[in-house]
Amino acid sequence: MTTLSSTVPENRRRSAPWLGPLLRRLHFYAGILVGPFILVAALTGAAYAISPQIEKVVYAEQLSVPPTDDPLPLATQIEAANAVIGDSSASLSAVRPAPEPGDTTRVMYDDPSLGESESRAIFVDPSTAEAVGDLTVYGTSGALPLRTWIDQMHRSLHLGDVGRLYSELAASWLGIVAAAGLVLWIQRARRTRRPAAMLRSHRKHTGLRRTFSWHASVGIWAAVGMLFLSATGITWSQLGGDNVTKLRAALSWETPAVSTELAEGAGAGSAEAGSAGDHSEHESHDGHDGHEEHGDGPAGHADHSGHAEHQDSTGPGTAAETSGADPADFDMMLSMAQAVNIDTGQVEILPPADANSAWVIQEIQRSYPTQVDAIAFDPTTMKVTDRVDFADYGPAAKLARWGIDLHMGSLFGLANQIVLFVLAIGIASMVVWGYIMWWQRRPKHDPSRRFGVLPPRGALLNAPWWGIGAVGLAALGIGVLLPMVGISLVVFLIIDVVLGIRARRRERVTG
What we know:
- With 511 residues, this protein is α+β, with helices and mostly antiparallel strands.
- The chain is 50% helix and 9% strand.
- It has helices spanning 2-15, 19-33, 35-58, 60-63, 74-85, 145-156, 160-192, 207-234, 239-250, 319-322, 327-338, 395-408, 413-440, 465-481, 483-510, and strands at 91-96, 105-110, 118-124, 131-138, 347-350, 359-363, 374-377, 384-388.
């Protein structure tokens, strides 16, 4: 009897399920402790998704003018913008010609008083050369102040680099929570043998069962989107994003960037990362524009601060004072680029940063089909020194470009924005339903318990040796790649140990 009684529990322990209970406890802890961060990221992400449409209404005077089929030369428009800038310390850094009739031209300046990836933009009517606006724009996306404010709220809560840790925590755990929830949904569907019924909520149910049906059904539909937002959002993060950048570099998956560097005595430049084609932008979470590409993902509207050195002492308000480039050269450079590989209306023209740099003309169309070709010209010989065509991007670089633009809602325009908005609201709703379920699971017989009990601990003790090893390796690998996950996992364990000690003491007292 003694041998039998000692072996039966062991056999039961070995055959007991362990993966489901382990994921359920992980899903619970992440939902409760990281839920607030995910909720804020989802709500601000929803606002950002529709911000381009809001921007068009709020800044209609700066963005829209009576259409014309015969725009004035860029030189005339740039001179009008230079007149507005006057003798300020701002230096001409880029020009974005009006992409369509009825749009304005943006003449952009580096201004020492602005923040990183920000430029001062003068909006010019192409038909009259009248300046119709003077605003700060951000990143490769050219976000205007309202969208920039929403973007920074989404990225960092307007707390700078410290605040960016919140969005990194949310992005890192969003994918883990989604993956754990997906496995739990599949396990439950197999037990009930009615997976189709679990794809929708059940309004006839009440209380906890109804809340759970909403949480589970919306979760399964949103799972793929959550995994996608997590993966692309991490590229804009500080700690995890840096690791992703290093991994891509090790695998030669970087995004090509046109080189502005000229060979000694002028000549062909060598393509290398970190030149004018690389973005800084959320864009910068073009990531989420601040969101632009962190390393390809947000780094944004390249740093044009070097253009400030291109000033001379010709009189206030003159073109030479705001930039070393002659306004007439912009028309010529655009015409030359259009004869090579620039064939879209959404274009940015960057003058040389110094005597050893080239002109760069690059496409900035982020919608599908993507057009982000770029070309560099030697300002002395007018020869092509480098060019990058999107068609020549590697598969990884193309996927990164499309992933970032899809995350930002620009790849498929309004349809993309609507899907992102609905997805973000769905994620926010699941967080709220998770807290409601926690409250609904509270023990009715114990009024002192205001919230539901945690899923039972000890699931890993039922796992075979290979299961324990796999979980350990996965936790270590994810923790190293995504430091915020590793740090928060340690916090989870500390909280779990403390709660376990308290529970044992309570049992001893009541026992």
